[in-house]
Amino acid sequence: MKAAVISAIIIVMFVFPNIVSAQEAAPVENPLKTEMKLLDSAFKNLIDSLIFNSPRTIEEPFEEVHKAKEKTEAALKKGLIKLPKNNNKIKEFIKMDEEFHHNMEGLIEASRKGDMKKVQDITHRLLNDCVQCHNRFRN
């Protein structure tokens, strides 16, 4: 009996190899969602850094966001990303995103200088930008 079951499994694997491969293959995630997850993590770290007055810990997670942005930009140029809301206003989204990342660079620069007041001010601006973008293109 066991031999028959094992034989059947082997036959199925050789006759239908794509079934096994398709189940093992991980779905490819939207680059924008990947960037948003990294941004979420970077902001959580940023809040901790502000609370504990630790400017040196701010930059690294935002560098990961910056790297992810390159993949997002490439996907946007290829038309591979569809915004949940107002997808016909993709140029507006791109402009907001560019401004956001410019402000993010200011945050990193302020953290390098240890200017926590400026870090705090830019953090407020960035969080407001997140809310505006999500209201416009997500919620």
Produce the secondary structure layout.
Elements lengths: L1 H14 L1 H8 L6 H21 L7 H19 L12 H24 L2 H22 L2
Helix pairs in contact: 1-2, 3-4, 5-6
Helix content: over 70%
Which band does the percent of strand residues land in? under 5%
Query: Secondary-structure element order, as H and E?
Result: HHHHHH
Tell me the Rg in angstroms: 22 Å
Give the low-pLDDT segments: 19-23
Largest sheet entry: none
Structural class estimated from helices and strands? mainly alpha
Secondary structure tally, helices: 6
Task: Give a structural overview.
- The protein is mainly alpha-helical and 139 residues long.
- It has one domain.
- The chain contains six helices and no strands.
- The radius of gyration is 22 Å and the shape is elongated.
Keywords:
single chain; about 140 residues; mainly alpha; about 0% strand
Provide a brief overview of the structure.
The protein has helices at 2-15, 17-24, 31-51, 59-77, 90-113, 116-137.
